[in-house]
């Protein structure tokens, strides 16, 4: 009887200890919340090259000192690394006909394709087909609506964006020109003999 009285308290103590061990196990496993996903190794994202449109237009560098240069970058933004440069001395070069968020795709002086800030680029106007296929100068004009001593600018193409190639004045008298205007411009020959276009506003047929 004395032995039974000694065993029962011992078993009770063991059982109690066992229950404590069972209850303690989940507590150690709950260091991470249940709804937190297990750690996953990061997947490297592929670096995509910026889309480059066709280089169908012509540009030249502006607003850059002769001793300086314009950076050509890998993509349309300052976060892209430089891949080349352009200077005023490089003259004309090919570029996209439109800008993307202020950046133009073009070809650097080294021949590499990249992007440069549109604020330092001047797009050279592309001559209209009418400039290449000049109409016949079958009519006669004289300068009109000009102040005395003024001259009418004759430009390479039908628009203010084209460079000046000569002038016409009232002293030139009559001169040959196309019989019809194209968007307000008439094909003529300037006083220095160079072919060009003049505003029909200042011409009288």
CATH superfamily of the largest domain: SH3 Domains
Mean pLDDT over all positions? 79
CATH topology assignment of the largest domain: SH3 type barrels
Number of strands: 14
How far the N terminus sits from the C terminus, by CA atoms, comes to: 141 Å
* Overall morphology: elongated
Number of domains: 2
Spatial order of strands in the largest sheet: 4-1-7
Strand residue content:
25-35%
Q: Mind telling me the C-alpha Rg?
A: 40 Å
Show unreliable segments.
Answer: 17-38
**Helix coverage percent of residues?**
10-25%
List SSEs in N-to-C order: HEEEEEEEHEEEEEEE
- Supply the number of helical segments: 2
The CATH C-level name of the largest domain is Mainly Beta
Counting helices, strands and paired strands, the structural category is alpha+beta
Q: What is the second-level CATH architecture of the largest domain?
A: Roll
Biggest sheet descriptor: 3 strands, antiparallel
Organism: Planotetraspora mira
Protein name: SH3 domain-containing protein
Keywords: Signal
